[in-house]
C-alpha cells in the first residue's frame, strides 16, 4: 500500500518556496560579491583572500547550469526567455564573453601600466599595448567558449527533455 501512495503537493506553496529559494540565492550571491570587493580593497591583490567567495560564486553557477541541463529545464527556460526578450539568450551569451574579455584586458593593461612602467608615457604605452593584445586574445576566446558550452548544454537539455517526454508517452 505504501508503494502506490501519492504525495499531495500544493503548487502555491511550492511556487512560494521556489521564490524564496531564488531570493536566498540572489542574497548569497550579492553578499559574496560584496565580500569579494571588500577583501580586494582591504587586502589588495591576490586570490588567496577571496578564494572562498570565488568558489561559492562559481559553484552556484555551475551547479545551476548542470542541474537545469540534466533536468531538461534549461532548454525550456531559454525558449521562454527568447520568446519574451528582445535579445536571444545566445546573443547575450556572446556579449557576456566579450564583456569578460574586456574586463580581463582592462585588468591586465592596468596591471602592466602600474607595475612595469617607469613613467606616465610608458604607462600609457604599456596599458594600451597589453589591453589591445589581451582584448584580441580573450574576448573572442571567451565568447566562443561560452557560446559553444551554452549551445551544447541546451542541446543536452533538449535531448533529456525529449527522452522524458518519450518515457511519459510509453507509460500511457
What's the structural blueprint in terms of helices and strands?
Layout: H1 11-43, H2 51-70, H3 73-84, H4 89-116, H5 120-171
Helix pairs in contact: 1-2, 2-5, 3-5, 4-5
- In total, the number of strands is 0
Low-confidence stretches: none
The succession of helices and strands, N to C, reads HHHHH
- Integer-rounded radius of gyration: 22 Å
Q: Strand share of the residues? A: under 5%
What does this structure look like?
The chain has helices at residues 11-43, 51-70, 73-84, 89-116, 120-171. The longest helix has 52 residues, at 120-171. The relative contact order is 0.09. It is elongated and about 75 Å long. The mean pLDDT is 86. It has 172 residues and is mostly helical. The chain has two domains: 10-70; 72-172, no CATH class. It has five helices and no strands.
A few lines on this structure:
Helix content is 84%, strand content 0%.
List the defining traits of the structure above:
single chain, elongated, mainly alpha, 5 helices, 172 residues
Amino acid at each position: 500500500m505504501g508503494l502506490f501512495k501519492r504525495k499531495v503537493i500544493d503548487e502555491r506553496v511550492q511556487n512560494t518556496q521556489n521564490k524564496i529559494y531564488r531570493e536566498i540565492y540572489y542574497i548569497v550571491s550579492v553578499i559574496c560579491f560584496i565580500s569579494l570587493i571588500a577583501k580586494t580593497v582591504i587586502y589588495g591583490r591576490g586570490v588567496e583572500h577571496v578564494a572562498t567567495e570565488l568558489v561559492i560564486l562559481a559553484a552556484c553557477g555551475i551547479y545551476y547550469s548542470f542541474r537545469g541541463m540534466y533536468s531538461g529545464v534549461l532548454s525550456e527556460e531559454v525558449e521562454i526567455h527568447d520568446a519574451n526578450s528582445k535579445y536571444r539568450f545566445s546573443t547575450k551569451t556572446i556579449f557576456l564573453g566579450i564583456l569578460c574579455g574586456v574586463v580581463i584586458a582592462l585588468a591586465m593593461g592596468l596591471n602592466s601600466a602600474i607595475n612595469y612602467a617607469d613613467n606616465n608615457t610608458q604607462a600609457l604605452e604599456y596599458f594600451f599595448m597589453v589591453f589591445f593584445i589581451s582584448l584580441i586574445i580573450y574576448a573572442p576566446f571567451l565568447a566562443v567558449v561560452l557560446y559553444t558550452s551554452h549551445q551544447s548544454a541546451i542541446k543536452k537539455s533538449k535531448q533529456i527533455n525529449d527522452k522524458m517526454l518519450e518515457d511519459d508517452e510509453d507509460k500511457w
